[in-house]
Amino acid sequence: MTLTFPPGFLWGAASAAYQVEGAAQEDGRTPSIWDTFSHTPGKVLAGDTGDVAVDHYHRFREDVRLMAELNLGAYRFSVSWSRVQPTGRGPAVQRGLDFYRSLVDELLGAGIQPVVTLYHWDLPQELENAGGWPERETAERFAEYAGIVAGALGDRVEFWTTLNEPWCSAFLGYGSGVHAPGRTERLAPLRAAHHLNLAHGLGAQALRAALPARAQIAISLNPAVVRPLSDKPEDLDAARRIDALANRVFTGPLLRGAYPSDLIKDTASITDWSFVRDGDLAVIKHPLDALGINYYTPSLVSAATDNDGSPARHDGHGASAHSPWPGSERVAFHQTPGERTEMGWTIDPTGLHDLLMRYSREAPGVPLYITENGAAFDDKPDAEGAVHDPRRIDYLQAHLAVAHQAIADGADLRGYFLWSLMDNFEWAYGYSKRFGAVYVDYPTQARVPKSSARWYARVARTGELPAA
Protein backbone atom coordinates (compact mmCIF):
# COMPACT_ATOMS: atom_id res chain seq x y z
CA MET A 1 0.00 0.00 0.00
CA THR A 2 1.29 3.46 -0.91
CA LEU A 3 1.55 5.83 2.04
CA THR A 4 0.85 9.52 1.40
CA PHE A 5 2.40 12.23 3.56
CA PRO A 6 0.49 15.42 4.40
CA PRO A 7 0.54 18.32 1.94
CA GLY A 8 3.41 20.66 2.67
CA PHE A 9 5.55 17.99 4.31
CA LEU A 10 9.15 19.15 3.96
CA TRP A 11 11.54 16.78 2.21
CA GLY A 12 15.19 17.63 2.66
CA ALA A 13 18.74 16.46 3.10
CA ALA A 14 21.40 17.58 5.53
CA SER A 15 25.13 18.19 5.85
CA ALA A 16 27.63 19.85 8.22
CA ALA A 17 30.25 22.47 7.43
CA TYR A 18 33.39 20.62 8.48
CA GLN A 19 32.23 17.44 6.80
CA VAL A 20 31.69 18.96 3.36
CA GLU A 21 33.13 22.43 2.84
CA GLY A 22 36.90 21.97 2.69
CA ALA A 23 38.72 25.27 1.97
CA ALA A 24 39.99 24.98 5.52
CA GLN A 25 42.46 27.86 5.25
CA GLU A 26 40.76 30.08 2.68
CA ASP A 27 39.17 33.51 2.95
CA GLY A 28 40.15 34.13 6.55
CA ARG A 29 38.97 30.86 8.07
CA THR A 30 40.98 29.74 11.10
CA PRO A 31 41.19 26.30 12.75
CA SER A 32 38.26 24.83 14.62
CA ILE A 33 38.59 22.10 17.20
CA TRP A 34 37.97 19.57 14.43
CA ASP A 35 40.88 20.90 12.38
CA THR A 36 43.12 20.49 15.41
CA PHE A 37 41.70 17.09 16.34
CA SER A 38 41.91 15.63 12.83
CA HIS A 39 45.50 16.81 12.45
CA THR A 40 46.47 15.12 15.72
CA PRO A 41 48.02 11.71 14.93
CA GLY A 42 45.85 8.78 15.98
CA LYS A 43 42.61 10.70 16.44
CA VAL A 44 41.00 10.08 13.04
CA LEU A 45 41.08 6.86 11.05
CA ALA A 46 43.83 6.82 8.41
CA GLY A 47 44.87 10.34 9.38
CA ASP A 48 42.01 11.80 7.34
CA THR A 49 41.10 15.47 7.74
CA GLY A 50 38.41 17.83 6.53
CA ASP A 51 40.91 20.09 4.77
CA VAL A 52 39.31 19.35 1.40
CA ALA A 53 36.35 17.13 2.35
CA VAL A 54 34.02 17.18 -0.69
CA ASP A 55 35.03 20.73 -1.68
CA HIS A 56 31.49 22.07 -1.23
CA TYR A 57 32.96 25.54 -0.68
CA HIS A 58 33.95 25.67 -4.35
CA ARG A 59 31.35 23.30 -5.79
CA PHE A 60 28.21 24.48 -4.03
CA ARG A 61 26.53 25.63 -7.24
CA GLU A 62 26.99 22.17 -8.76
CA ASP A 63 25.71 20.66 -5.53
CA VAL A 64 22.60 22.85 -5.48
CA ARG A 65 21.83 21.83 -9.07
CA LEU A 66 22.09 18.23 -7.89
CA MET A 67 19.71 18.96 -5.00
CA ALA A 68 17.20 20.41 -7.47
CA GLU A 69 17.47 17.30 -9.63
CA LEU A 70 16.68 15.27 -6.52
CA ASN A 71 13.54 17.35 -5.85
CA LEU A 72 14.70 18.48 -2.42
CA GLY A 73 12.41 20.99 -0.79
CA ALA A 74 15.02 21.99 1.80
CA TYR A 75 18.75 21.80 2.47
CA ARG A 76 19.93 21.80 6.05
CA PHE A 77 23.53 23.00 6.33
CA SER A 78 25.68 24.35 9.13
CA VAL A 79 27.74 27.53 9.29
CA SER A 80 31.42 27.25 10.14
CA TRP A 81 31.85 29.54 13.15
CA SER A 82 35.58 30.01 12.49
CA ARG A 83 34.87 30.94 8.86
CA VAL A 84 32.56 33.73 10.00
CA GLN A 85 34.21 34.82 13.25
CA PRO A 86 37.73 33.34 13.23
CA THR A 87 38.61 33.90 16.88
CA GLY A 88 35.08 33.35 18.16
CA ARG A 89 35.02 37.02 19.10
CA GLY A 90 34.72 40.38 17.45
CA PRO A 91 33.74 41.41 13.93
CA ALA A 92 32.77 39.01 11.19
CA VAL A 93 34.86 38.14 8.15
CA GLN A 94 32.68 39.26 5.27
CA ARG A 95 34.29 36.79 2.84
CA GLY A 96 33.06 34.00 5.09
CA LEU A 97 29.58 35.42 5.29
CA ASP A 98 29.59 35.96 1.53
CA PHE A 99 29.92 32.21 0.98
CA TYR A 100 26.76 31.57 2.96
CA ARG A 101 24.97 34.49 1.30
CA SER A 102 25.82 32.98 -2.09
CA LEU A 103 24.75 29.49 -0.99
CA VAL A 104 21.42 30.79 0.30
CA ASP A 105 20.81 32.76 -2.91
CA GLU A 106 21.60 29.70 -5.00
CA LEU A 107 19.21 27.57 -2.95
CA LEU A 108 16.39 30.07 -3.15
CA GLY A 109 16.95 30.42 -6.89
CA ALA A 110 16.47 26.68 -7.20
CA GLY A 111 13.31 26.71 -5.09
CA ILE A 112 15.01 25.00 -2.15
CA GLN A 113 14.45 26.24 1.40
CA PRO A 114 17.68 26.95 3.30
CA VAL A 115 17.71 25.59 6.86
CA VAL A 116 20.64 26.97 8.85
CA THR A 117 22.32 25.18 11.75
CA LEU A 118 24.56 27.58 13.63
CA TYR A 119 26.70 25.01 15.41
CA HIS A 120 27.59 21.50 14.27
CA TRP A 121 30.57 20.73 16.52
CA ASP A 122 33.27 22.99 15.01
CA LEU A 123 34.13 25.39 17.85
CA PRO A 124 36.82 27.96 16.96
CA GLN A 125 40.08 26.68 18.40
CA GLU A 126 40.75 29.97 20.17
CA LEU A 127 37.59 29.50 22.24
CA GLU A 128 38.68 25.99 23.15
CA ASN A 129 42.07 27.38 24.15
CA ALA A 130 40.15 29.60 26.58
CA GLY A 131 38.38 26.56 28.07
CA GLY A 132 35.78 25.61 25.47
CA TRP A 133 32.22 24.59 26.26
CA PRO A 134 32.87 23.89 29.96
CA GLU A 135 33.31 27.68 30.31
CA ARG A 136 30.38 30.04 30.50
CA GLU A 137 31.96 32.60 28.19
CA THR A 138 31.64 30.21 25.24
CA ALA A 139 27.85 30.41 25.52
CA GLU A 140 28.05 34.19 25.59
CA ARG A 141 30.28 34.22 22.52
CA PHE A 142 27.82 31.93 20.73
CA ALA A 143 25.04 34.47 21.21
CA GLU A 144 27.18 37.14 19.57
CA TYR A 145 27.95 34.82 16.68
CA ALA A 146 24.25 33.93 16.28
CA GLY A 147 23.40 37.61 15.97
CA ILE A 148 26.07 38.09 13.29
CA VAL A 149 24.78 35.24 11.13
CA ALA A 150 21.16 36.30 11.62
CA GLY A 151 22.06 39.81 10.52
CA ALA A 152 23.63 38.49 7.33
CA LEU A 153 21.07 35.85 6.34
CA GLY A 154 17.90 36.66 8.27
CA ASP A 155 16.15 38.40 5.41
CA ARG A 156 16.27 35.17 3.36
CA VAL A 157 16.43 32.29 5.84
CA GLU A 158 13.31 31.44 7.82
CA PHE A 159 14.29 28.18 9.56
CA TRP A 160 17.12 28.23 12.09
CA THR A 161 18.61 25.55 14.33
CA THR A 162 20.89 26.71 17.13
CA LEU A 163 22.80 23.51 17.94
CA ASN A 164 23.13 20.07 16.44
CA GLU A 165 23.42 17.16 18.86
CA PRO A 166 24.80 18.98 21.89
CA TRP A 167 25.13 15.59 23.62
CA CYS A 168 27.96 14.69 21.26
CA SER A 169 29.67 18.04 21.78
CA ALA A 170 29.57 17.67 25.55
CA PHE A 171 29.97 13.98 26.29
CA LEU A 172 32.03 12.72 23.34
CA GLY A 173 34.13 15.87 23.17
CA TYR A 174 34.88 16.25 26.88
CA GLY A 175 34.10 12.78 28.33
CA SER A 176 35.16 9.86 26.16
CA GLY A 177 37.36 12.05 23.97
CA VAL A 178 36.40 10.33 20.71
CA HIS A 179 35.27 13.68 19.28
CA ALA A 180 37.02 17.03 19.26
CA PRO A 181 38.50 18.48 21.37
CA GLY A 182 39.31 15.00 22.69
CA ARG A 183 39.26 15.73 26.41
CA THR A 184 38.63 12.88 28.86
CA GLU A 185 37.19 14.33 32.07
CA ARG A 186 34.20 13.70 34.33
CA LEU A 187 33.09 17.19 35.37
CA ALA A 188 33.75 18.94 32.05
CA PRO A 189 30.98 17.11 30.11
CA LEU A 190 28.34 18.21 32.61
CA ARG A 191 29.56 21.79 32.61
CA ALA A 192 29.67 21.68 28.81
CA ALA A 193 26.12 20.33 28.60
CA HIS A 194 24.85 23.23 30.71
CA HIS A 195 26.73 25.85 28.74
CA LEU A 196 25.50 24.35 25.47
CA ASN A 197 21.97 24.59 26.84
CA LEU A 198 22.68 28.17 27.83
CA ALA A 199 24.15 28.86 24.38
CA HIS A 200 20.92 27.65 22.84
CA GLY A 201 18.87 29.97 25.04
CA LEU A 202 21.11 33.00 24.54
CA GLY A 203 21.43 32.23 20.84
CA ALA A 204 17.66 31.91 20.47
CA GLN A 205 17.25 35.31 22.12
CA ALA A 206 19.80 36.82 19.74
CA LEU A 207 18.08 35.25 16.75
CA ARG A 208 14.66 36.40 17.85
CA ALA A 209 15.95 39.96 18.26
CA ALA A 210 17.42 39.99 14.75
CA LEU A 211 14.96 37.93 12.71
CA PRO A 212 11.50 38.66 11.30
CA ALA A 213 8.61 37.33 13.35
CA ARG A 214 7.95 34.59 10.77
CA ALA A 215 11.32 32.91 11.44
CA GLN A 216 11.33 29.51 13.12
CA ILE A 217 13.91 28.74 15.81
CA ALA A 218 14.70 25.14 16.73
CA ILE A 219 17.34 22.87 18.21
CA SER A 220 18.33 19.44 16.90
CA LEU A 221 18.86 16.77 19.55
CA ASN A 222 19.95 13.17 19.18
CA PRO A 223 17.76 11.63 21.87
CA ALA A 224 18.60 8.07 22.80
CA VAL A 225 16.05 5.28 22.75
CA VAL A 226 17.22 3.52 25.92
CA ARG A 227 15.87 0.03 26.49
CA PRO A 228 16.64 -2.15 29.53
CA LEU A 229 18.07 -5.62 28.98
CA SER A 230 15.48 -7.04 31.38
CA ASP A 231 12.78 -5.89 33.76
CA LYS A 232 15.06 -6.41 36.75
CA PRO A 233 15.12 -3.32 38.98
CA GLU A 234 18.85 -2.84 38.46
CA ASP A 235 18.45 -2.89 34.65
CA LEU A 236 15.51 -0.51 34.77
CA ASP A 237 17.62 1.81 36.89
CA ALA A 238 20.46 1.57 34.36
CA ALA A 239 18.06 2.68 31.61
CA ARG A 240 16.84 5.54 33.79
CA ARG A 241 20.41 6.72 34.37
CA ILE A 242 21.30 6.75 30.69
CA ASP A 243 18.02 8.41 29.78
CA ALA A 244 18.88 11.21 32.21
CA LEU A 245 22.37 11.72 30.75
CA ALA A 246 21.42 11.25 27.11
CA ASN A 247 18.04 12.95 26.98
CA ARG A 248 16.71 14.74 30.02
CA VAL A 249 19.92 16.71 30.65
CA PHE A 250 18.74 18.71 27.61
CA THR A 251 14.96 18.36 27.50
CA GLY A 252 14.60 19.05 31.23
CA PRO A 253 15.81 22.65 31.00
CA LEU A 254 14.66 23.17 27.39
CA LEU A 255 11.08 22.06 27.93
CA ARG A 256 10.51 22.37 31.67
CA GLY A 257 13.10 24.85 32.90
CA ALA A 258 14.79 22.43 35.33
CA TYR A 259 17.44 19.74 35.43
CA PRO A 260 16.06 16.36 36.50
CA SER A 261 16.46 15.67 40.21
CA ASP A 262 17.63 12.11 39.55
CA LEU A 263 20.39 13.37 37.24
CA ILE A 264 21.61 15.72 39.94
CA LYS A 265 21.58 12.86 42.45
CA ASP A 266 23.37 10.48 40.04
CA THR A 267 26.17 13.00 39.51
CA ALA A 268 26.43 14.29 43.09
CA SER A 269 29.88 12.75 43.54
CA ILE A 270 31.11 14.83 40.60
CA THR A 271 29.43 18.20 41.00
CA ASP A 272 26.89 20.18 42.98
CA TRP A 273 25.78 21.88 39.73
CA SER A 274 26.72 25.29 41.14
CA PHE A 275 27.74 26.33 37.63
CA VAL A 276 23.99 26.77 36.97
CA ARG A 277 23.38 30.41 37.85
CA ASP A 278 20.20 32.22 38.76
CA GLY A 279 18.27 33.03 35.61
CA ASP A 280 20.00 30.45 33.41
CA LEU A 281 17.08 28.04 33.31
CA ALA A 282 14.63 30.75 32.29
CA VAL A 283 16.95 31.68 29.42
CA ILE A 284 17.31 28.06 28.30
CA LYS A 285 13.54 27.56 28.29
CA HIS A 286 13.17 29.99 25.39
CA PRO A 287 10.02 29.03 23.44
CA LEU A 288 10.80 26.62 20.61
CA ASP A 289 9.12 26.94 17.22
CA ALA A 290 10.17 23.39 16.35
CA LEU A 291 12.17 20.49 17.72
CA GLY A 292 14.60 18.56 15.57
CA ILE A 293 15.12 14.85 16.24
CA ASN A 294 18.09 12.89 14.91
CA TYR A 295 17.78 9.11 15.03
CA TYR A 296 19.92 6.18 13.92
CA THR A 297 19.68 3.22 16.33
CA PRO A 298 18.44 2.29 19.84
CA SER A 299 20.51 1.48 22.93
CA LEU A 300 20.24 -1.61 25.12
CA VAL A 301 21.56 -1.33 28.67
CA SER A 302 21.87 -3.19 31.95
CA ALA A 303 23.59 -2.87 35.26
CA ALA A 304 27.26 -3.75 34.75
CA THR A 305 28.76 -6.92 36.13
CA ASP A 306 32.39 -7.74 36.84
CA ASN A 307 32.53 -9.58 33.51
CA ASP A 308 31.54 -6.59 31.40
CA GLY A 309 35.04 -5.19 30.90
CA SER A 310 34.57 -1.75 29.39
CA PRO A 311 30.83 -1.28 30.01
CA ALA A 312 30.36 1.42 27.35
CA ARG A 313 31.93 -0.65 24.55
CA HIS A 314 28.60 -1.13 22.75
CA ASP A 315 27.21 2.36 23.20
CA GLY A 316 27.79 3.02 19.49
CA HIS A 317 29.92 6.11 19.94
CA GLY A 318 33.43 4.86 19.30
CA ALA A 319 36.07 3.07 21.34
CA SER A 320 37.63 4.80 24.32
CA ALA A 321 39.05 3.85 27.68
CA HIS A 322 37.02 6.75 29.08
CA SER A 323 33.25 6.74 29.53
CA PRO A 324 30.96 9.44 28.15
CA TRP A 325 28.51 8.67 30.98
CA PRO A 326 29.74 10.56 34.09
CA GLY A 327 28.27 9.16 37.27
CA SER A 328 26.94 6.10 35.42
CA GLU A 329 30.13 4.47 34.22
CA ARG A 330 28.94 1.11 35.57
CA VAL A 331 26.05 0.85 33.16
CA ALA A 332 26.73 -1.82 30.53
CA PHE A 333 25.72 -1.39 26.89
CA HIS A 334 24.79 -4.39 24.77
CA GLN A 335 24.69 -4.97 21.04
CA THR A 336 21.06 -4.91 19.99
CA PRO A 337 19.99 -7.83 17.78
CA GLY A 338 19.30 -7.49 14.08
CA GLU A 339 20.84 -6.35 10.82
CA ARG A 340 23.51 -3.67 11.19
CA THR A 341 24.91 -0.84 9.12
CA GLU A 342 28.61 -0.28 8.42
CA MET A 343 28.72 1.73 11.66
CA GLY A 344 27.74 -1.43 13.55
CA TRP A 345 24.41 0.18 14.41
CA THR A 346 21.36 -2.06 14.48
CA ILE A 347 18.63 -1.15 12.02
CA ASP A 348 15.51 -0.69 14.13
CA PRO A 349 12.95 1.85 12.92
CA THR A 350 10.70 1.26 15.94
CA GLY A 351 13.03 3.53 17.90
CA LEU A 352 12.15 6.45 15.62
CA HIS A 353 8.46 5.92 16.24
CA ASP A 354 9.13 5.78 19.98
CA LEU A 355 10.95 9.13 19.89
CA LEU A 356 8.33 10.89 17.80
CA MET A 357 5.56 9.80 20.15
CA ARG A 358 7.61 10.59 23.27
CA TYR A 359 8.33 14.16 22.21
CA SER A 360 4.78 14.64 20.98
CA ARG A 361 3.81 14.03 24.61
CA GLU A 362 6.67 15.94 26.22
CA ALA A 363 6.59 18.96 23.92
CA PRO A 364 2.89 19.38 23.07
CA GLY A 365 2.25 22.09 20.54
CA VAL A 366 5.85 22.05 19.24
CA PRO A 367 6.14 20.81 15.64
CA LEU A 368 8.66 18.02 15.11
CA TYR A 369 11.17 17.52 12.31
CA ILE A 370 13.40 14.53 11.71
CA THR A 371 16.57 16.53 11.08
CA GLU A 372 18.84 13.52 10.57
CA ASN A 373 18.21 9.90 9.68
CA GLY A 374 20.21 7.60 7.46
CA ALA A 375 22.71 4.78 7.26
CA ALA A 376 26.27 4.00 6.19
CA PHE A 377 26.84 1.12 3.83
CA ASP A 378 29.85 -0.06 1.83
CA ASP A 379 28.81 1.54 -1.44
CA LYS A 380 30.93 0.98 -4.56
CA PRO A 381 30.44 1.82 -8.24
CA ASP A 382 29.78 -1.08 -10.58
CA ALA A 383 31.59 -1.65 -13.89
CA GLU A 384 29.46 1.03 -15.57
CA GLY A 385 30.08 3.54 -12.79
CA ALA A 386 26.58 3.27 -11.27
CA VAL A 387 26.15 2.93 -7.51
CA HIS A 388 23.35 0.67 -6.37
CA ASP A 389 22.48 0.72 -2.66
CA PRO A 390 19.31 -1.33 -2.11
CA ARG A 391 20.00 -1.68 1.62
CA ARG A 392 19.81 2.09 2.05
CA ILE A 393 16.52 2.17 0.16
CA ASP A 394 15.18 -0.52 2.51
CA TYR A 395 16.44 1.48 5.51
CA LEU A 396 14.76 4.69 4.34
CA GLN A 397 11.57 2.86 3.39
CA ALA A 398 11.27 1.35 6.86
CA HIS A 399 12.01 4.58 8.74
CA LEU A 400 9.71 6.71 6.61
CA ALA A 401 6.95 4.14 7.12
CA VAL A 402 7.16 4.52 10.90
CA ALA A 403 7.33 8.31 10.52
CA HIS A 404 4.07 8.11 8.57
CA GLN A 405 2.63 5.90 11.29
CA ALA A 406 3.63 8.44 13.93
CA ILE A 407 1.72 11.13 12.05
CA ALA A 408 -1.29 8.83 11.97
CA ASP A 409 -0.84 8.32 15.72
CA GLY A 410 -0.99 12.06 16.36
CA ALA A 411 2.60 13.31 16.05
CA ASP A 412 2.88 16.78 14.52
CA LEU A 413 5.74 15.78 12.24
CA ARG A 414 6.40 18.41 9.57
CA GLY A 415 9.48 17.22 7.69
CA TYR A 416 12.30 14.75 7.11
CA PHE A 417 15.96 15.44 6.38
CA LEU A 418 18.01 12.59 4.99
CA TRP A 419 21.51 12.18 6.40
CA SER A 420 23.30 12.83 4.29
CA LEU A 421 23.15 14.48 0.92
CA MET A 422 26.63 13.26 -0.06
CA ASP A 423 29.32 10.97 1.22
CA ASN A 424 31.66 13.09 3.31
CA PHE A 425 34.14 13.27 6.20
CA GLU A 426 32.57 11.09 8.88
CA TRP A 427 34.30 12.58 11.92
CA ALA A 428 36.66 10.15 13.69
CA TYR A 429 35.94 7.54 10.99
CA GLY A 430 37.41 9.79 8.30
CA TYR A 431 36.29 8.86 4.80
CA SER A 432 35.71 5.18 5.62
CA LYS A 433 31.94 5.42 6.17
CA ARG A 434 29.56 6.48 3.42
CA PHE A 435 26.20 7.90 4.52
CA GLY A 436 25.42 9.79 1.33
CA ALA A 437 22.61 9.41 -1.12
CA VAL A 438 25.16 10.77 -3.57
CA TYR A 439 28.43 8.88 -4.02
CA VAL A 440 31.59 11.00 -3.99
CA ASP A 441 34.75 9.76 -5.66
CA TYR A 442 37.16 11.54 -3.35
CA PRO A 443 40.21 11.69 -5.69
CA THR A 444 38.21 13.37 -8.48
CA GLN A 445 35.32 14.87 -6.42
CA ALA A 446 32.89 13.44 -8.98
CA ARG A 447 29.32 13.15 -7.66
CA VAL A 448 27.24 10.10 -8.62
CA PRO A 449 23.65 9.83 -7.35
CA LYS A 450 23.10 6.38 -5.91
CA SER A 451 19.94 4.35 -6.46
CA SER A 452 18.69 5.65 -3.11
CA ALA A 453 18.99 9.24 -4.35
CA ARG A 454 16.72 8.52 -7.30
CA TRP A 455 14.32 6.64 -5.03
CA TYR A 456 14.25 9.53 -2.53
CA ALA A 457 13.77 12.03 -5.35
CA ARG A 458 10.54 10.26 -6.34
CA VAL A 459 9.30 10.28 -2.75
CA ALA A 460 10.13 13.98 -2.39
CA ARG A 461 8.40 14.84 -5.67
CA THR A 462 5.19 12.91 -4.99
CA GLY A 463 5.00 12.89 -1.18
CA GLU A 464 4.21 9.20 -1.51
CA LEU A 465 6.04 6.27 -0.02
CA PRO A 466 5.71 3.23 -2.28
CA ALA A 467 4.98 -0.16 -0.82
CA ALA A 468 8.06 -2.09 0.29
UniProtKB/TrEMBL annotation:
<keyword id="KW-0378">Hydrolase</keyword>
<keyword id="KW-0136">Cellulose degradation</keyword>
<keyword id="KW-0326">Glycosidase</keyword>
<keyword id="KW-0624">Polysaccharide degradation</keyword>
<feature type="active site" description="Nucleophile">
    <location>
        <position position="372"/>
    </location>
</feature>
<dbReference type="InterPro" id="IPR033132">
    <property type="entry name" value="GH_1_N_CS"/>
</dbReference>
<comment type="similarity">
    <text>Belongs to the glycosyl hydrolase 1 family.</text>
</comment>
<dbReference type="InterPro" id="IPR018120">
    <property type="entry name" value="Glyco_hydro_1_AS"/>
</dbReference>
<feature type="region of interest" description="Disordered">
    <location>
        <begin position="306"/>
        <end position="328"/>
    </location>
</feature>
<keyword id="KW-0119">Carbohydrate metabolism</keyword>
<protein>
    <recommendedName>
        <fullName>Beta-glucosidase</fullName>
        <ecNumber>3.2.1.21</ecNumber>
    </recommendedName>
</protein>
<dbReference type="InterPro" id="IPR017853">
    <property type="entry name" value="GH"/>
</dbReference>
<dbReference type="Pfam" id="PF00232">
    <property type="entry name" value="Glyco_hydro_1"/>
</dbReference>
<dbReference type="InterPro" id="IPR017736">
    <property type="entry name" value="Glyco_hydro_1_beta-glucosidase"/>
</dbReference>
<dbReference type="InterPro" id="IPR001360">
    <property type="entry name" value="Glyco_hydro_1"/>
</dbReference>
